[in-house]
Specification:
The chain has helices spanning 22-32, 54-67, 83-96, 115-128, 139-142, 148-154, 170-179, 194-199, 214-225, 229-249, 251-261, 281-290; strands at 6-7, 39-42, 73-77, 100-104, 133-137, 160-165, 185-188, 205-206. The protein starts with 5 loop residues before the first strand and ends in a 6-residue tail after the last helix. Helix 10 (229-249) packs across helix 11 (251-261). It has a six-stranded parallel sheet. Strands 1-8 form a two-stranded parallel sheet. It is globular, with a radius of gyration of 18 Å. By secondary structure, it is of the alpha/beta class. The chain has a single domain (6-232), classed as Aldolase class I (TIM Barrel, Alpha-Beta Barrel).
């Protein structure tokens, strides 16, 4: 499977009552599909995955699949706290039309999630999954930073085809890329280090910023591949502040607020998450103006 390119991890639209709003998911996908994105991810961290029921997750995948072109890749986040539920959701995602599953490691019992436990988890899921699996390393949310030896070991499984790494450790990422087989794809998990990741061999990114600045993310990727490094480096510097504000400091509420300003549907986050406080709205609007971020 070709995973070389840019994916936005879609937000999950809710109405004022906190219920799924599938019409808005469709309209957001329609707008983002105007850009040369390789595909889309649903049910990632920015999709408020832990706040959704099993049936809601399957419904979102169904809605997304009928809303995007067949030649676009649909990734689905399916990493639950138990191995059995992860397998069940991965199978259901495949049946709903997902092309591959992005799986965050279990973390609630993080003190017991050593390399042996994590290896068994991923191998069991990969054995049962009818679609390819990507590992998801997200220490900021999970509290677990999967080490290079474990990732390289798991990359040998024929059904584990890639890694989304949101840790931002370029030394570790470079080691992993140097040790895995050529057909294993490492993707940057943040626009904040997209270009540094590409420089050491990453093949693209799953980037929250691609929801609100898809062309900027695509341009960094294309300029790098066209050896126009000066242009890529200029854009990388341009996006640092807003990426930090939206995706690292204020998360889903800030991302959804920004989407509302751009003609997409952000809407409310699901409780217990709260909307972006008013005190942060003006600084965010100023950052948007700095990089000329207008309606998509």
């Amino acid at each position: 499977m070709n995973l070389k390119g840019i994916f936005p991890p879609l937000t999950t639209p809710f109405n004022a009552k906190g219920q799924l709003y599938p019409e808005k998911l469709k309209s957001n996908i329609e707008e983002l599909s105007k850009y040369n994105l390789l595909g889309l991810l649903v049910l990632g961290s920015n999709g408020e995955f832990p706040l959704l029921s099993f049936d809601e997750k399957v419904s979102i995948i169904n809605t997304a699949r009928i809303s995007i072109a067949k030649d676009r890749i649909l990734l689905a986040g399916t990493g639950c706290q138990s191995t059995n539920e992860t397998i069940d959701l991965t199978v259901a995602s495949a049946e709903a039309g997902a092309n591959a599953a992005l799986i965050l490691n279990p973390f609630f019992y993080k003190g017991l999630m050593d390399n042996s436990a994590l290896a068994e988890f991923y191998l069991n899921v990969a054995d049962e999954s009818p679609i390819p699996v990507l590992m998801y390393n997200m220490p900021a949310n999970s509290g677990i930073d999967m080490d290079a030896d474990l990732i390289v070991e798991l990359s040998q499984h024929q059904n584990i085809i890639g890694l989304k790494d949101s840790g931002g450790n370029m030394i570790k990422m470079e080691e992993i890329i140097g040790r895995v087989n050529a057909d294993f794809t490492v993707l940057s998990g943040s626009a904040g280090f997209l270009l540094p990741a590409l420089k050491i061999g990453a093949k693209g990114g799953i980037l929250a910023l691609a929801n609100i600045a898809p062309q900027l993310c695509i341009d960094i990727y294309n300029y790098f591949n066209d050896s126009q490094l000066d242009k890529a480096e200029f854009l990388q510097k341009e996006i640092i502040k807003i990426n930090k504000f939206v995706t690292r400091e204020h998360g889903v509420p800030a991302l959804k607020f920004t989407m509302d300003q751009l003609g997409l549907y952000g809407g409310p986050p699901r409780r217990p998450l709260l909307p972006l406080p008013d005190d942060y709205k003006s600084p965010l609007l100023e950052l948007m103006n700095e990089i000329g971020l207008g309606r998509l």
